[in-house]
């Protein structure tokens, strides 16, 4: 079985692309922070994602880079760090969140290291990546040492680098999509009435690991939500509720492989399926196809999403659709940018995009159909194959 990897040279190339943009924008230093919710910012530049801790990376405009680990992850960081020429240093501020005290020789306080960098570099502008999770304890030390420097949000810069995928990235994403499609194909037929939501989650997680995934998608564990009350919640935790026949079951699961993520959301039902559930699922499936058929290089998202909402309006489901989501995907299942009618961003070749139809608040429940697409010069290829094959057989 083929398991593609991101080549070692990719990490130096990414840092070079970043420093080029830093020079253009007058940014002297970038510091990126990652935690278990979003390990992508640091991993993108060096392939290190911490275990039970957080991580950071500091990149200077001249390319000098420091990978920052906590104490417990240090040995793992030595193995995983693939950024040639970078330093690896240990900082207690990104260690275990309980503040566990390690007797670790050679660790630094971030204030000490920032002062060391200040003595070597003239820093007037600093870009911060990971702003929604960036810890105050590090940020305040950054502001204290570089009191005269301008601190800017550099998340947009990070996602601009990640938007257009390289051949290596597409190969890795193809593996994600292959794994999660196979997981749904093999697991869904095993679902039986009387199983709990958690039992189905266990089947999904077990199968993705057997097939070579690192873990479930980083943003969330598999979500199995059954019946009108549980399925109503867009993001949830699976419970001990038992599945029944004739009710909606909303399945959402993704796999992480080589730091990249692939996702499928799919409705399901056991036994005799009420016609009103069949009708709604078919409309959502068709609306998704109407939208994705327009996802070609040069197309604006206003055109795509208008076609989607007009289709739902025509068939009477628009009141149950709080949004139609079209967003980039890669090292996060849902990552910037989001494409909407308002921002009307253009679709470009070698983007990888998730699109989902979310129907919410019908008297029998809610569901989501979500798939991943790769944009080629000819249009959007639906790369997660389960929904396309299974939904017509189950519901139509």
Mean pLDDT: 95
- DSSP helix fraction: 25-40%
Q: How many helix segments?
A: 12
Q: Name the poorly predicted regions.
A: none
Biggest sheet statistics: 6 strands, mixed
Into which percentage range does the β-strand content fall?
Answer: 15-25%
> How large, in whole angstroms, is the Cα Rg?
23 Å
- Principal-axis shape equals globular
Class inferred from helices and paired strands: alpha+beta
Written as H for each helix and E for each strand, in order along the chain, the element string is HEHEEHEHEHEHHHEEHEEHHEEEEEH
Q: Tally of extended strands?
A: 15
How many angstroms separate the termini?
34 Å
Strand arrangement, major sheet: 4-3-2-1-5-6
Give the tags.
396 residues; six-stranded mixed beta sheet; 12 helices; alpha+beta
Please provide a written account of the structure.
The strands form three sheets. This protein has a six-stranded mixed β-sheet, covered by helices on one side. The protein has a five-stranded antiparallel β-sheet with strand order 12-11-13-14-15. Strand 2 (55-60) and strand 3 (65-69) form a beta hairpin. By secondary structure, it is of the alpha+beta class. The longest helix is centred in the middle third of the chain and has 21 residues, at 167-187. The radius of gyration is 23 Å and the shape is globular. Helix 4 packs parallel to helix 5 and helix 7 crosses helix 8 (197-210). The model has no long low-confidence stretch (mean pLDDT 95). The protein has helices at residues 9-25, 40-46, 74-80, 110-120, 136-145, 155-162, 167-187, 197-210, 227-230, 275-292, 301-314, 386-395; strands spanning 29-34, 55-60, 65-69, 87-90, 125-129, 150-153, 215-216, 223-226, 249-257, 260-268, 324-328, 335-338, 352-362, 365-376, 379-382.
């Amino acid at each position: 079985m083929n398991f593609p990897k991101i080549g070692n040279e990719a990490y130096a190339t990414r840092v070079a692309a970043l420093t080029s943009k830093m020079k253009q924008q007058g940014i002297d230093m970038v510091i990126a922070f990652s935690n278990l919710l979003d390990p992508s910012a640091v991993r993108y530049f060096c392939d290190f994602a911490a275990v039970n801790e957080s991580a950071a990376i500091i990149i200077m405009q001249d390319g000098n880079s420091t990978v920052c680990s906590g104490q417990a992850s240090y040995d793992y960081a030595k193995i995983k760090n693939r950024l040639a020429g970078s330093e690896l240093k240990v900082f207690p501020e990104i260690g275990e969140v309980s503040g566990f005290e390690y007797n670790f020789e050679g660790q630094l306080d971030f204030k000490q290291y920032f002062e060391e960098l200040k003595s070597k570099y003239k820093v007037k502008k600093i870009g911060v990546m990971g702003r929604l999770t960036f810890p105050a304890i590090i940020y305040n030390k950054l502001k204290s040492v570089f009191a005269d420097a301008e601190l800017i949000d550099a998340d947009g810069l990070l996602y601009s680098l990640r938007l257009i995928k390289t051949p290596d990235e597409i190969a890795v994403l193809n593996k994600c999509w292959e794994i999660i499609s196979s997981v749904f194909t093999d697991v869904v037929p095993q679902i039986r009435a009387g199983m709990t939501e958690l039992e189905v989650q266990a089947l999904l997680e077990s199968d993705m690991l057997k097939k070579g995934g690192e873990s479930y998608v980083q943003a969330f564990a598999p979500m199995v939500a059954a019946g009108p009350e549980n399925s109503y919640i867009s993001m949830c935790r699976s419970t001990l509720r038992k599945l029944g026949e004739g009710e909606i079951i909303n399945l959402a699961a993704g796999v992480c492989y080589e730091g990249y993520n692939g996702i499928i959301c799919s409705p399901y039902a056991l036994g005799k399926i009420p016609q009103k559930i069949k009708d709604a699922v078919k409309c959502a499936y068709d609306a998704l196809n109407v939208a994705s058929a327009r996802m070609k290089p040069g197309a604006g998202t206003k055109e795509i999403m208008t076609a989607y909402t007009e289709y739902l309006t025509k068939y009477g489901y628009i009141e149950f659709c709080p949004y139609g989501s079209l967003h980039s995907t890669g090292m996060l299942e849902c990552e910037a940018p989001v494409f909407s009618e308002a921002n009307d961003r253009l679709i470009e070749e070698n983007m990888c995009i998730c699109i989902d139809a979310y129907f919410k608040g019908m008297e029998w429940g809610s569901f989501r159909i979500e798939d991943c697409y790769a944009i080629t010069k000819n249009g959007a290829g639906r790369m997660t194959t389960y929904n396309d094959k299974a939904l017509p057989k189950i519901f139509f």
